[in-house]
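Supplementary Note 2. Why include the ligand at all?

Several targets in our set were suspected to adopt different conformations when bound, so apo predictions alone were not considered sufficient. For every target with a known small-molecule partner we therefore ran a joint prediction. The input for guanosine-5'-diphosphate is given below.
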Amino acid sequence: MFNNLSEKLDKALHTLRGRGQITEINVAETTKEIRRALLDADVNFKIAKEFTNRVKEKAIGQDVLTSLQPGQLMVKIVKDELTELMGGDAEGIDLSGNPSVILMSGLQGSGKTTFSGKLANFLKRKKSKNPLLVACDVYRPAAIDQLHVVGDQIGVSVYSDKENKNPVSLAQAGIAHAKANGHNVVIIDTAGRLAVDQEMMDEISNIRDAVKPQEILFVVDSMTGQDAVNTAKSFNDVLDFDGVVLTKLDGDTRGGAAISIKSVVDKPIKFIGTGEKMDAVDIFHPARMADRILGMGDVVSLVERAQEQFDEEQARRIQKKIAKNRFGFDDFLSQIQQIKKMGSMKDLIGMIPGAGKAMKGLDIDDDAFKHIEAIIHSMTPAERSNPALLDAKRKKRIAKGSGTSIQEVNQLLKQFTQMSKMMKMMQGGGGKKMMQMMQN
Ligand code: GDP
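The joint prediction is reproduced in token form.
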């Protein structure tokens, strides 16, 4: 996420970091470089200029010049200003209605349908809501089918009616359906077009006037940079929406949209999309995003994700197995599955402070687990619970069955043995023993 911007900001701030004393000229140079980094990231020119002016003023006002660690103080100023620019505190969505109606708006291809599904999934799993998705794109039957596919994936009902070509009455029928079937949230996916046009704006305004949603969200593709900001402005002028959803932040986004949108439309970014899967969505936290942009990682989100996936029951079961020397490949597999649920590897590594920079240029393979899973799936249940059974003949069979090589099977076995040993030592309160093992 925002690799280029992070790198350039890091460079800009680096020159100050090592110095014990700096001058007003140093500050001016650094802020100039920061401005250039922002412009390269496709941040609106005026916003970049105002931003760096504020940073400069604050830096000189806060005695960066006489501070013992001017570099660090400067990083803090930039971080605070970035956070402020992106919206200050995280903002939630209004779920006060019964049902609460959430209207999606945005151009075709922005990720509206995908996000409608992600939001329904999020509300169902994390807020214990019973959402209904309503398909209001009367022009593209494929869009209705797509919403059904999404609904099936996450186990959420979808209301659609291909005979009804009136989006307003469709939205109303959807809400009536929700009321009759006990759904407490209605998410209305509307038709988008390739560019902003009057007809689309009239249509969505009519839906809004008829259903009076608690929340109007504007979905936009972050890859489109300044265009995203301009489109947001056009939609907001007509709809006066409540929040922005920035999608495709997992791609090669330069960051301009995330940084500029709040100050242009004065509406908060509420969610970000970080992948095509239904769980690739996060609440937008400006301060955490500022940390990530400045290469400081996002430990808070990482821990939150780990906590969400942490299954106490399973942890206890595994602990017992380790104690009894019964940790097997099935357990290994379930651990991998838990890690995978936390998100893509690239995303997770980006949350570790400094890791993004350290791993730069490395192609992190999200399919890395696939081979391991295939190997384990090719074992018999007996082999999984008792890896000692794995002789040369069995290994050959497993390599063949999983489409891997004997070397890969051996490597996995070695890793598994090391991991089991380590877990056993940690359990036995053997921190000291482990240190010894690592030194040997
Ligand atoms: P709509 O026309 O606005 O409903 O857009 P869709 O929901 O159909 O999304 C358009 C394309 O973008 C689809 O291929 C989605 O899989 C993809 N997409 C949506 N959100 C994300 C995201 O956060 N990350 C990535 N990588 N792809 C996304």
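The pocket of guanosine-5'-diphosphate is lined by residues 106, 108-114, 192, 247-248, 250-251, 273-276, 280 (CB under 6 Å). The beta strands are 100-105, 131-136, 157-159, 185-190, 215-221, 243-247, 269-273, 281-283. Comparable summaries for the other entries are listed in the accompanying table.
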